[in-house]
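Notebook entry, structure prediction.
Reason for the run: the old model in the group folder had no record of what sequence produced it. Starting over properly, with the input documented here first.
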Amino acid sequence: MKHKVAIATLAAAAALTVCAAPVHAEGSSDIFGSAGSSDLGSSSKKQQHYGKLGRADAPNGVRSINVWVLPGNGVKAVESGVYPRNSQIGVKWNSVIQTGEEVGSDECKMTVKLTGPKVTAKNGTAKSKFCTSRKLFRLKAAGDYSITVTDAVSGASNAIKFTLR
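New structure, fully documented this time:
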């Protein structure tokens, strides 16, 4: 019985890992050359970094930022990358150093910028000092959106794209 519980636990953890694969921006350093792929299954033993890379000498050590679409409570995708309008949708990010370890400190100067229909600079920009965090936006208008997360300390940035219908 203990083996069945352990196997079920491992299967659930693996499913979460696959579902939590980061989305990578167009023009990223993704070795596969596509915006929605991940480094799962890569034979490379080197750490993969995506988006615009941070400066190697950055004081906070941030080399890259991973980003994911973050649906609010109860929001489910209609199809891949498409969500219902009048929803809370946002971004979840983590910053990583050259070796791939996550930066969980408050040594960053993150700017989160939302672009899309009826988005203004006032309601589409947020700031955070946290290198790993999340931000939700209330979005009402149908259309294509993007959210860019940029660290002013290192210069690293990455973006996600999604659609509301």
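Summary: Confidence is low (pLDDT under 50) at residues 1-44.
The old model has been moved to the deprecated folder.
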